Structures
1.
Amino acid sequence: MNNIQRIRQVIPEYNCDAILILNQVNRLFATGFSSSAGVLLVTEDNAWFFTDSRYIEAAQTAITGTDVMLVSKDEKITESVKAIVTKNKITSIGFEEGYISYKCKKDWNDKLGIEMVPAHGLLNDLRKIKTRSDLDKMIRIQRISEKVFNEILPLISTDMTEKDLAAEIIYRALKNGVDDKAFDPIVVSGPNSSRPHGVPGNEKIGKGFLTIDFGLKLDGWCSDTTRTLCIGIPDDEMVTIYNTVLKAQEEGIKAVRGGVKGIDVDTAARKVIEDAGYGEYFGHGFGHSIGLEVHETLSASQLSKDVLPAGAVISAEPGIYLPGRYGVRIEDTLYITENGSENITKLPKTLTVI
């Protein structure tokens, strides 16, 4: 069953005749085709992808099981959709209220002149569960990410800046065939490593911990990987903190399985850090779901109300951050199964000293 068929099955649950998909990532999920311009309309029986002359040939080649419609230069895309809506006697349409603006929704409402029903959850719920084919694509981009990490590892020195190293990650990622970065690389060293989402600076890489957090994209699918290294010999407390974070990650991973609450996974990891006396220095959650976006809807944190389903993919990334001194984060990616999880990250986690 492809994703268009999955969407068709659940449309009746949202009390609408069709769903209008405007968000680029959701269009990619549904059709396997990515373009900056396009609209997808899906009913229980049919689907139509509307695009202009810039993408029509590529769309016709890439998309199957959907009518691909050319929007002419003399016609607005809303008019093309309106024609299909009228012809097929569609009286209510679901829309992605979590993605589109009030003005955008109003413009479509005014043009189509029919009821528009909030249906943001329809796509989100389907995207939570990754098929084996989806997972294979995520493993592929993860392997490339690991190759990039292993390539930049011997380059690291105190003669280069944090920005230099971030640039090397992007350069080598593109050389290895990725489509794009999933987010700007986080490369922070010394005191800067105490900032979980610190920005690489023009300072030379300093002594102490060096945290490298980066994500790449291929065919729309994202990776997300973090490793913390040490520049110079770590002192006893640094070793203790690193090992505490590693143990916390291991305990959180042990708690992961289909049907477990996200908060319970976070609590299992957090207890290790709290018992070691560093609880106040772990300010974020254990993890978040990953897929066609690097941050999707599920989370494992103290604020989470999510039940983590088998088939979801989440990060496992506890950390300890001592303000003005240093920080440690270790991140893997987990595919949740009925009885546990499959860790698709294969980089070693013993503390690397440079």
Note: The mean pLDDT is 96.
2.
Amino acid sequence: MENTVIEITRFSFSISSKAILKDISLNVKEGEYISIVGPNGAGKTTLLKCLDRIHKGGSGDIRIAGRPLDKYSQKELAQKLSYVPQADGRISPFTVYEFVMMGRYHHLSPFSSPGKEDKDAVHDALAITGISEFAERFLRTLSGGERQKVFIAAALAQGAKVLLLDEPTTFLDPKHEADVHRLLARANRERGFTVVSVTHDINSAVLTSRRILALKNGAVAFCGFADKFMNNEILQKIYEKSFLFVKHPQTGKTIVAPEVP
């Protein structure tokens, strides 16, 4: 039986008295791949930040691996959840190896040096993401797509089995976007990582996810299997527009067709 790794029950969250999340409920099972979609301002990023306790407070209940979120220390939480934020353009002055090793911070005491287990975890994460050749390069010398793989490698090296990703393919060219999607799918299928990913790309959400959570104005507008999401009755309520659909030539899944201007 699959274990529940994230359990959100009637959770609401406000910033400066403005309701951002309203009565959210969601259970995430071990090994699932879930995409969170919705228009701008729907509360998608806020929900991830509440899960990782970047935003604290709120009403309702959040449990991680069966334990209330507020009972975790930040170090303990880092052993359960890894968070990859949106790219913000800032580039750390570290090599790839140094940056990925920082993902091991919760395994180390303040003055200890990385041990064999830490080094093995970093090398494994570099290998999974296909960036071992970049280990000694500085982040500033990499492309945006290459840096995104580094950020994911740091999350994998952290050792948590749940990955929270906030728009991991934003600003990437088609090649690197496809690379990141393949990387996350492989981590999910072959390594057993649970993936919860915020995205604006409806097609990639349907093609990669088992389930989709759609938010609108801070509330749940849809939560269910990905193949049930692609119909205009649902999408029009969320995005306030109609869509054209086609069948994907390789998978047969329904996807959104681009509209002619």
Note: The mean pLDDT is 92.
3.
Amino acid sequence: MRGDIVLCHGFGFDRDYWDSLIPYFSDYNIYNMDLGYYGRKTTTLPTLKSRKTIGIGHSLGFLKLAQLNLEFDLLVGLNPFLNFLGNQKELRRKRQLEFKMLKSSMNLSPKETLESFHLRCGASFDYEKFQNVSLRSLIEDLDYISYEHPKPNAKEILILASEDDPVVPKALTLELIKPEFSHIRVEFLETGFHALGSLHSEWVQRKIKGHIDGNL
């Protein structure tokens, strides 16, 4: 095996988000986390002993990986953020309003809200999974993303994002480019919405493997 890969899906999804990407990395040990929105929480990792550890997180999953007690050789963010509300005044004002509406809607009509959110992401919604939905986990993580998070613990950071992402707009992605992130690379795909990892898994794996081969 070439190393270990730790996967973490984003808000409103589960470990199945990675089904189309995992086959590309059959030469790695895969640890697929689940944040427990649909009844099967798996966030405890075994001791990783590989000489190469790679984290791949979608959206909120990027934050979750960044806060683990691990130093990744490479941390990959798909449609990621560190500050979901943003730092720019006008952008933050708009997103605060959207966030308030999302949280209120999730409390009142979780099924309809999740269905709408998946549609907005460009992803399908599995009605069967909703039977085991954990509203508590969803609300807790909405609170979790509402404040800024510290710098990820990684030697290299690769950001893959979508020009047309309606959930994490390009302006928010560009806020990740900071002087203290000395080893960061950002690439955009013109059309990927907020489900880049499932909609364009071939492009994603090509960019990740290219970075690994060229930098690690």
Note: The mean pLDDT is 91.
4.
Amino acid sequence: MGGVACSSDPNDAATTTTQTPVTTAPATTEAPPQTFDIVGTALMGGSFTQLAGLVVDAGLVDTLRGAGPFTVFAPTNEAFQKLPLDALHAVQDDPELLATVLTYHVVPGALKLADLQPGKLTTVSGLDLDVTRDGDKVFVNGYEVTGDVVATNGVVHVLGDVLLPPS
């Protein structure tokens, strides 16, 4: 590689410099996205801290971390705020009911939105969910489901409401 330095002074001589090329490996600016299990995905999402706390309270962390694959219809923090406070406390105060409500949001298998077809899905709680479609939109028990967040042991979908099992 050569270069020439010039100036407007006629008394300056042209100077030629030679540089040795430096070879470097191309730098990567982005790390590959990190994938977590379902519980880690819920915690990292930031929108599911209420759900993650209830999973801890119900003792379901190891189940959702070690097994699978599962599909989780994950209510956001805002979804829990829609619930009447007395109903939320009743669920939180009854460990068996809490486990039933949480597992009512979980279906065996890794189902992306495209895989969810109209009909019944049996949840881990043993109760059925009703899946419907309207064009590209997917609904579970009448509530819209969005997102395909892939976890190491399944798929997490965003749900703006809490699914309550039939009494």
Note: Helices lie at 38-45, 49-57, 61-66, 77-82, 85-93, 95-103.
